């Protein structure tokens, strides 16, 4: 589970900023906060924080430019390195990883663990000088291997190649335990390829779809190879329409062409062997009736099912899930119910975490008399006059239990809201229309 994340000189996050997941409440059931909601005005830096937290996506393989994204509104910052620091706890052992990257390569890198609360340095690097920790298995061989690490490649990304045993728990968590959801691109493609597997892993996903007021009575997964001849062409056509991957498009176009030209004498076995991995989704919106295809479903339905599939995966694996603009694709009444899944030990026994940015001020209110978000689960990002973003927790204001957090936030008491007056927009547009 994530304990804390620090970042500096990453886009608008010029000065060191820290997101701490340690609870401030003594009565917390969790060692680390299960939820963190990040509020802020548009262009305040919320997405930059979420993006920085997902820096691990650029660790596997050669270093790429996004790891070094300095604050560009002053010359001094542009010359400095971008730094990341992440702390987590895995099976009772705490890990710390620090990485600083400049325009020319790795500046500093260090991985430490704390078995029995005693610090052990597993990796220490300054520029091209790499030191393998004294307690590491096969230290001599690793030291020799590490000398081959390119100057622009984080040493940790070589964990699999080096077979560095003591690095593996943290490396595996960074790659698989810290996850992000981005449904902005090719969401239909993800829908048709991910959902069949997700339903097999989590049959409860169908039940959740039924109670989410999506109008769905049932969802069935059918192998395309099991379809009858007359429905195969239709299923393949739908698959092609929902794929944006060129390799799959080329294959599916080839299959469609063959089906269309040889409809009377179809070599069904050969075709089916090529599409065994393709599966067809059938949606029933009534207990009895004709099924609808995936392409007939609304984006809201698609978003809900994809979100819930990945949320159930995170809860099952005890992963930390990061989502930018959580409220853009889901109804405001669904999000509190999702938050509850992480806050309740019965549904979150493995300490999974949900970290998200949002504009939904209603989450600062209550549901059935109980607060949706605990006070230490709320954070704000605000952009200063010089363009740098500042991250700070709601608890820094020491709000009282009787305070209406939603009203105070929208009223500007905590910052993190746009400094505009709605009527001014009308005046500006009206004035512009008058001059045309």
TrEMBL record:
Residue span(s) of domain ATPase AAA-type core: 35-364
InterPro entries tied to this protein: ATPase_AAA_core (IPR003959), P-loop_NTPase (IPR027417)
Name the UniProt record assigns to this protein: AAA family ATPase
């Amino acid at each position: 589970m994530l304990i804390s994340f620090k970042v500096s000189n990453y886009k608008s996050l010029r000065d060191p900023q820290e997101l701490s997941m340690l609870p401030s409440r003594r009565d917390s059931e969790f060692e680390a906060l299960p939820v963190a909601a990040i509020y802020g005005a548009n262009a305040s830096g919320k997405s930059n924080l979420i993006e920085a937290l997902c820096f691990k996506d650029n660790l596997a393989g050669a270093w790429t430019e996004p790891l070094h994204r300095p604050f560009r509104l002053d010359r001094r910052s542009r010359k400095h390195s971008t730094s990341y620091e992440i702390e987590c706890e895995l099976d009772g052992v705490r890990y710390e990883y620090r990485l600083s990257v400049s325009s020319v390569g790795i500046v500093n890198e260090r991985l430490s663990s704390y078995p029995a609360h005693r610090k052990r340095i597993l990796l220490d690097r300054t520029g091209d000088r790499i030191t393998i920790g004294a307690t590491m298995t096969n230290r001599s061989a690793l030291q020799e291997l590490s000398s081959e690490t390119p100057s622009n490649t984080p040493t940790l990304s070589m964990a699999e190649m080096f077979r560095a045993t003591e690095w593996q728990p943290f490396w595996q968590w960074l790659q698989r335990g810290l996850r992000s959801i981005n449904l902005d691109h090719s969401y239909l493609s993800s829908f048709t390829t991910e959902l069949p597997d997700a339903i097999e892993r989590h049959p409860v996903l169908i039940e959740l779809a039924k109670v989410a007021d999506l109008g769905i009575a049932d969802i069935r997964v059918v192998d395309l190879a099991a379809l009858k001849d007359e429905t195969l062409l239709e299923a393949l056509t739908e698959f092609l329409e929902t794929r944006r991957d060129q390799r799959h498009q080329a294959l599916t176009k080839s299959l469609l062409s063959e089906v269309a030209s040889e409809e009377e004498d179809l070599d069904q076995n050969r075709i089916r062997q090529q599409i065994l991995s393709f599966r067809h989704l059938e949606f029933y919106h009534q207990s009895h009736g004709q099924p609808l295809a995936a392409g007939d479903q609304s984006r809201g339905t698609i978003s809900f099912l994809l979100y819930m599939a990945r949320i159930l995966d995170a809860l099952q694996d005890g992963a930390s899930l990061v989502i930018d603009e959580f409220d853009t694709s889901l109804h405001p009444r669904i999000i509190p119910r999702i938050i509850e899944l992480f806050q309740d030990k019965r549904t979150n026994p493995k300490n999974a975490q949900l970290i998200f940015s949002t504009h939904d001020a209603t989450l600062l209110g209550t549901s059935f008399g109980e607060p949706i978000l605990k006070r230490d689960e709320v954070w704000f990002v605000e952009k200063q006059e010089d363009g740098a973003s500042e991250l700070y927790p709601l608890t820094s204001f020491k709000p009282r239990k009787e305070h209406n957090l939603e009203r105070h936030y929208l009223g500007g008491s905590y910052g993190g809201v746009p400094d505009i007056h709605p009527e001014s927009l009308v005046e500006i547009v009206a004035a512009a229309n008058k001059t045309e």
